[in-house]
Amino acid sequence: MKPKFTLVLAAILCFGLQFSKAQITIKTDSKSDSSANKSRTEIDINVGKDDKDDIKKVHYPRTFGGITFSRIDWGFSRLVDNGSFTLSEENKSLDYKKASNFGFDVAQFGVRFSDVFKVYASAGFEWNYLRLENDVLLRKDVTPLEFEDLDPSSNYKKNVFTSTYLRLPLTFELRSHKLSNGKRLKFAFGAMTGVLLKGTQRLKSEEFGKQKYKDTYNLTTFQYGGFARIGYDNFGLFTKYYMNDMFEKSPAQDGLRNLTFGITLGF
Questions:
Q1: pLDDT above 90: residue 10
Q2: What's the pLDDT tens digit per position in 183-198?
Q3: CA nearest 123: which of 138, 142, 110?
Q4: Which interval of the chain is the signal sequence (predicted)?
């Protein structure tokens, strides 16, 4: 693990440990009647002050925070080139077979104002993957972004370009009152920011085997945008739109942005 990445992770852990009190709860509720036996097991893992309302009387506002592992986003991405899903000629080297997004939160702090509304800031990590269509190599240590054609006779089977960001969202979350089964409907929206940690390109070919390169590749240093989530209990759907250009100091990529959507676990 690189020193830069280690320092970022250590800072997040220190932030969460300010509230630290480990809570690992395994709870099994059983209900029985003449027609059926029902059981439910819940596992909660949290270090810090949890946002639970199982006690008989709850007072608001109240704070919560600490280390967490939640809001796990996994979905697809689409590049938007000046409002179009079709890439311009200048960006054909970035044509992709598949694009995906993965991320999660590891620390949080917030305030619950009522049974149905809370606001919180969190920190985590996010990866954007582009499985490139063409046999191209993104050149390192050059500005603006440049591409180098690879020899097709090397039979490249994989060409994946990845960006890794520290993500820092601010979330406004609404939820319904408890349904008859004790679960809730949820809706969240907010603003997200992110700081670039690294860019990576991974190649695999018959001639050279596995190759891995690291650089910033002119990826934008600071990303920002908006997001929304809607769900039921701990599961949901999300969408995120990045309002910044994907690359900086690279005129040919001006207006190239990222849209993601998928499922959320631990909502």
A1: no
A2: 999 999 999 999 999 9
A3: 110
A4: 1-22
